[in-house]
Write a sequence for this structure.
């Protein structure tokens, strides 16, 4: 027992020290995406590469393997979903993978991510894919090397996907996304042909950026994001990052001619931040204090952004506040008109601005393309043409240039292959969560009308956030809902919500 206790103490201390290094790396990344001088990119790449190497060295140290052996044996009879057993299980899973990666590769990947993101910012601004393509090719080469080092059965893409959604595989995701597409395409077509088309042009007026920030901050606070433990900044592509157990940064971009872009970007990233703030600070640095998966993380961003933030009850409460911030722009519209406008279904070029119905089509496009890139079926020089063809086929539109097309997302510049499908998984999980929350909490819409959003946040904290990685994503769903993952709750939600807006029967 003394050996077990000593091993656990050393294990915890080691991983909490490693978390300090990881948090420093996150801070450097946040700075890179917010205020770093352009010419500092090369040295910043060396800084984060150095840190990544040290972090990898600590996570794969022989002593970690020794502690894991002692702890696994000593915790055989322990609750598999308890903090200790879960932390050992998830650490071993990561240890086994990372031990197969040479430190050189880890450092090269980190360096390439920084340089790739900086090249992407410039290429996007200049609408020039050819300037970015060499950096993409480097990222692809390094990720393929990673997949080969770890090993795979069906596809190298599965190795990368596992970093974001443990236990998932590309074949299953292909079926999930295909099922979503088959169900959504007829709904989207029906809405497009409906006689009652909601008006949303008043959302595209001049909305002063300062007031957008003020209103977005106000709403995020009411939803439960704690600004004493977080902040809001500006970046080229919205994201959320965790610097420490009490330091959560959300970032958005503003368009003074469009209300929705920044506002829903803030709600999306605040959803991520609310999840991170709901994790147990005393478990920081251990799997028991870490998010389960990107699919579960995205379920929170999509839930707060869409299922709460685009609900009629939400706007019945917040509309007067919005009118105070934007009297000239919104003074003559009603909560119902606002609700209808922010739920317009219209094929669009930009994923982060897509409506709820077409959003998953954007994800399916990216999933297919990045899988083909990783597997070598799609040469990187051919990516823009393939992208444009898919947008013509799936959404009936074509980007006017690379900036609004293949260069619109930051993910591939940072070598985040396997990330995109988690957005669709997030939508699916979110629909399950809301269905269960309504059963447990009663009339959520009435609560929202009264500005009561914290009961939902607390329900999510109790059922999801506090558990860290003690359960897998699928285990957590079974625990909460008693049902396997299905597209039915999402499709029911979309049909019941969107059809009445367009004057169609909800049945």
């Amino acid at each position: 027992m003394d050996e077990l206790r000593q091993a656990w103490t050393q294990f915890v201390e080691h991983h909490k020290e490693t978390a300090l290094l990881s948090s420093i790396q996150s801070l450097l990344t946040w700075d890179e995406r917010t205020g770093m001088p352009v010419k500092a990119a090369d040295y910043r790449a060396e800084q984060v590469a150095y840190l990544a190497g040290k972090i990898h060295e600590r996570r794969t140290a022989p002593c970690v393997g020794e502690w894991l052996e002692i702890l696994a044996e000593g915790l055989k009879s322990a609750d598999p979903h308890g903090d200790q057993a879960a932390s050992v299980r998830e650490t071993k899973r990561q240890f086994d993978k990372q031990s197969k990666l040479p430190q050189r590769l880890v450092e090269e990947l980190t360096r390439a991510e920084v340089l790739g993101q900086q090249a992407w910012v410039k290429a996007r601004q200049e609408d020039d894919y050819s300037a970015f393509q060499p950096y993409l090719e480097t990222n692809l080469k390094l990720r393929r090397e990673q997949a080969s080092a770890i090993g795979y059965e069906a596809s190298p893409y599965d190795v990368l996907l596992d970093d974001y959604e443990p236990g998932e595989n590309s074949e299953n995701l292909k079926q999930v996304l295909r099922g979503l597409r088959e169900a959504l395409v007829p709904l989207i077509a029906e809405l497009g042909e409906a006689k009652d088309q909601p008006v949303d042009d008043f959302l595209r007026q001049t909305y002063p950026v300062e007031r957008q920030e003020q209103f977005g901050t106000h709403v995020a606070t009411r939803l439960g994001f704690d600004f004493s433990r977080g902040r809001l900044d500006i970046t080229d592509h919205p994201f959320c990052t965790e610097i420490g157990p009490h330091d959560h940064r959300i970032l958005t971009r503003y368009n003074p001619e469009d209300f929705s872009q920044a506002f829903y970007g803030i709600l999306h990233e605040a959803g991520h931040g609310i999840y991170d703030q709901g994790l147990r600070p005393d478990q920081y640095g251990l799997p028991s204090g870490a998010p389960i998966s990107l699919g579960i993380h995205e379920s929170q961003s999509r839930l707060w952004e869409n299922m709460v933030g685009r609900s009629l009850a939400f706007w019945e409460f917040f509309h007067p506040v919005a009118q105070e911030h934007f009297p000239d722009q919104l003074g003559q519209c009603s909560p119902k008109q606002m609700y209808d406008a922010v739920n317009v279904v219209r094929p669009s070029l930009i994923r982060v601005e897509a409506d709820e119905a077409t959003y998953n089509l954007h994800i399916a496009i990216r999933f297919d393309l990045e899988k083909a890139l990783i597997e070598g079926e799609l040469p990187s020089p051919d990516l823009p043409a393939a992208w444009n063809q898919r947008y013509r086929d799936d959404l009936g539109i074509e980007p006017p240039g690379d900036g609004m097309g293949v260069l619109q997302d930051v993910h591939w510049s940072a070598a985040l292959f396997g990330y995109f499908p988690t957005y669709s998984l997030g939508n699916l999980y979110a629909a399950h969560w809301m269905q269960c929350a309504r059963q447990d909490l009663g009339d959520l819409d009435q609560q929202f009308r009264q500005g009561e959003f914290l009961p939902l946040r607390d329900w999510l904290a109790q059922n999801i956030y506090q558990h860290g990685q003690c359960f897998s994503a699928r285990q957590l769903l079974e625990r909460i809902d008693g049902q396997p993952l299905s597209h039915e709750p999402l499709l029911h939600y979309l049909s019941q919500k969107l059809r009445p807006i367009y004057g169609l029967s909800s049945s």
Remarks:
- The CA atoms of residues 421 and 429 lie 13 Å apart.
